[in-house]
Amino acid sequence: MSASSLRARVRSEMHQEIKEVARRRLAEEGANLSLRAVARDMGIVASALYRYFPSRDALLTALIIDAYDGLGDAAVDAEAALPRDDLRGRWLATCHAVRTWALAHPAEYGLLYGNPVPGYAAPQDTVAPASKVILLLAAIVAEAPAIPAGPPVPPAVRTDLRRLVDEQAGDLPEERLDRALLAWTHLFGQVNFEVFHRLDDMIHARAEYFEHHMTVLADLAGLP
Amino acid sequence: MSASSLRARVRSEMHQEIKEVARRRLAEEGANLSLRAVARDMGIVASALYRYFPSRDALLTALIIDAYDGLGDAAVDAEAALPRDDLRGRWLATCHAVRTWALAHPAEYGLLYGNPVPGYAAPQDTVAPASKVILLLAAIVAEAPAIPAGPPVPPAVRTDLRRLVDEQAGDLPEERLDRALLAWTHLFGQVNFEVFHRLDDMIHARAEYFEHHMTVLADLAGLP
DNA sequence: CGGAGTCAAGAACAGTGTTCTCGCCTGTGC
DNA sequence: GCACAGGCGAGAACACTGTTCTTGACTCCG
Description:
The structure is a homodimer.
Chain A: H1 2-29, H2 35-41, H3 56-80, H4 87-104, H5 106-113, H6 127-130, H7 132-142, H8 155-167, H9 174-195, H10 206-220
Helix pairs in contact in A: 1-2, 3-4, 3-5, 4-7, 4-9, 4-10, 7-9, 8-9, 9-10
The structure holds a DNA duplex.
């Protein structure tokens, strides 16, 4: 048992190191990860990597899950650091954490929210870590005293939202989940634009720009 | 002259056909375009393509410019079809045109708004066609009778917006450009999520969902 | 201490973008 | 009408890529 766990431990360390090197490569080179380059960086031959990951896609999946976890944890930690009654603070902290993490890990962020990788279909393992941020936003909107009126939610959309609320076993009026989704969409839309350099020559004060728009969304979500 | 234009014409037809085949390949296979596959589809050897495009990146750039033009034209045409005084109609038509085009050309859309291609830096030729949609949105917001109050635009952001307005030789209060940018960000954020299959198991009534959120944004932009 | 199982290496295969050279062949300028 | 420069496609070559399989070594376990 302890012997088997010794083997298992060095194996898991090898897993970690491969992912570490792959992340570095990804950060330096951009989206297309080369197994042979990773192997070279480790002083190893490419085929040896197949002892640890059955394919390049499997390695990518591992990186994606780690990235979702990293992003989700950053958001959760930032949000948890604020007093529970500071709804707007918790909201902005979540948004800032997402932006900060994305700017610090652009390649990994691109893996998550950019073009889907060609032959790659996201396995089921990725859906839980992927939904951390939206759940966080929904939880904050749930506590808002009242949300500003807006156009009525169409019935078909209401059905979808109802189902989502039921699945997550939460208790949240559809209007509020709708606002949370709106904010979520906007948050990642804006981070996308910034990380993918779509704002480079347009907006220079990007931090203020981001904060400003997230404030508009906080208003729209009824956060005091 | 007419002789030289004969060579030039068949050359330009060849250009067109290569792009056509490449688009087909892109639509079927996904983001990573293979020159050799394109050549095979044309019954030609890969190196022959280099007579027409100096590199794979150059071909990609040509596809990207075409795509920006296609998307921009779709938006402009849809917007132009509505009476000038129907501000909200023009707004929604623009949004719908963008969504429809993106869903009809997912791979090309991914080229535009997904992960930046690895070694590829967008040349200057792409900035003009890329800004058609935001200019359209800004023009509509410019005609709104009044925009609803919101948080003040921070000074640094105001400076950026002022500069943008000056460059485009328009005449538009910063608050309005800010709302146009907000809507623009949201529009592409939402289309991104839908095209990249991030809403697949979440929202089934995606058309209504889209319309609903674009309506919220129209309100935010003060469109009657 | 012997054997089972894990590991890394290396060769091989099919595929990629890109470059270069070689003939062909045709549209062009006289 | 003709000679020829130029454009063109083919093909080989190079340096890569992911992936598979075999081979040999080494190590941990009974």
